[in-house]
Amino acid sequence: MKLINTNSIRRSAISIATAIAIAAPGLASAGLLDKAKSGIQTVKTRTGIVITNVQQHRPLANQVDTVKAQADEIFDQVKQLKVVEQLKQTMGLVQQMQADYEYFSGGEGCEAPCAAFRSSLKSTFDSFALLVSDLPALNSETGLVENMQRVSNLIDYLPPRALYLLWQAMSSKMAELETASDDIRQTLAQLPPLQPVSGFASGMSTMSVGSTASDLVSNVSDRYCGWKGKEEDPWVKMVRARLDLFGWTVEQFEGMIPDVEVKGEGGGTAGLGVANASANAGVGVKPTDGVKLYLKLVAFIPQRISKSIEMNILQANALCQ
Q1: Quick one: which of 294, 271, 295 has its CA closest to 281?
Q2: Between the chain's N and C termini, which has fewer beta carbons within 10 Å?
C-alpha cells in the first residue's frame, strides 16, 4: 500500500497560502483581496479535511479519489485567483517606477533631469520672490519676504526623492509656472498701482476722533482712488479669477505629494539630526515638508494679490469721491 505523506500535503497548502498572502497588496488594487482571503480560508479548510481523513486511516480505496478531486479543486481555485499574474504585474510596476526614478536622478545623487528640475524650481521661486519685493501691496509684509528667502535657500537641500515626487506631480505645468510671475507682473502693469492695506491702517491711526471722509482722502492722497468702481470692471474680474485659479491649481499639486519619512535608529525619524547635530533624532522631519512649503508659498502669492485688489477697490469706494 502506498503511504500518503500528510506533512507534504500540509506544506503544499501552506506554500499556496503564503504565495497568495505575498500578492495580497497587488490584489487589493485590483479588487481581488477579499476573494483572495476567502480562497486562502477554503484552501486551509479543505486541506485540513484531507489530512484528517488520511490520518484516521479510512479505507484507502475510498480516499485516493477523494484526495485527488479535492486537491484538483484547490489548485483550480488558486489558479482562478491569478496570484502569479498579480505578483508579476506588481513587480513590473515596481521595476518601472524604479527605472523612472533612476532616469530622473541620473542613477546617483541629483544629476541630469533632477539637477535641471532643481534649477528650474529655484529660478521660478526667485522670480516670485522678486515680484513680492516689487509690489507695495506685498513688500511691506516682512514675514512673507523673509519666508520667501528661507524657502529659496531650502530648495538647494531638497533630497532627490522629494524632488522626484514634485517632478512627477507637476512637470507638465513647469513651463507655465516659470512664466507665471512675469505674466502677473505684466497684467498688474495695466491696472492702478496696488497699495498695501497696512498703509491705509496707518493713515487711519493718525486721524483724530471726528475726522471726516474728506480728511481721510487727503491723508492717503489719491493712492487708492484709481481703483474706485473697479469691482464691476470685466478686466479686473478676469484678472482676479486667473490669479485665484493659478493659486488653487498649485495648491492641488501639494495634495498630490505623499509624505516621505527618513527613519533613524529604532524607527525614529532622524531628518533634523542630519541638519543639526544638537537636534533630537526622535523629532519627525519629512523630506517632502520643504516641497510642500514651496508650493504653499507659490500658491499664496497670486491669491494674496487677488485679495489686495479687492481691498484696494473697497478702500477707494469708501474714501474717494
Answers
A1: 271
A2: N
Enter the DSSP assignment of 157. G
Nearest-angstrom CA–CA distance, 215 and 233: 28
Q: What CA–CA distance (Å, rounded) separates 132 from 233?
A: 25
Contact 200, 220 (CB under 8 A): yes
Q: Please report how the helices 288-319 and 197-205 are oriented relative to each other, as an axis angle in degrees rounded to 10.
A: 50
Confidence at residue 97, expressed as pLDDT on a 0 to 100 scale? 79
pTM, full prediction: 0.62
Q: Which amino acid is at 161?
A: R
CB count in 10 Å sphere of residue 278 = 6
Each residue's pLDDT tens digit, 145-169: 888 888 888 888 888 888 888 888 8
Cell triple for residue 146?
523673509
Mean pLDDT score, 115-127: 91
| Predicted confidence band of residue 286 (pLDDT cuts 50, 70, 90) | confident
Between residues 35 and 145, which one has the greater pLDDT? 145
CB neighbour list of residue 285: distance below 8 Å, 6 or more residues apart: 262, 269, 270, 271, 272
Contact 136, 130 (CB under 8 A): no
Q: Averaged over 194-211, what is the pLDDT? A: 55
Q: 120: closest CA among 165, 79, 155?
A: 155
What are the extents of the domains in the chain?
6-97, 115-319
pLDDT at 183 over 60: yes
Query: HSE (CB half, 13 Å, CA atoms) of 143?
Result: 0
Intra-chain end-to-end CA distance of the chain, in Å: 112
Spatial CB neighbours of 9, under 8 Å, sequence gap ≥ 6: 47, 50, 51, 54, 71
Residue 100 Rama label (left phi>0; alpha psi -120 to 50; beta): alpha
Between 68 and 246, whose confidence is greater?
A: 246
Is-contact 28 15, C-beta < 8 A? Answer: no
What's the whole-number mean pLDDT along residues 90-97? 80
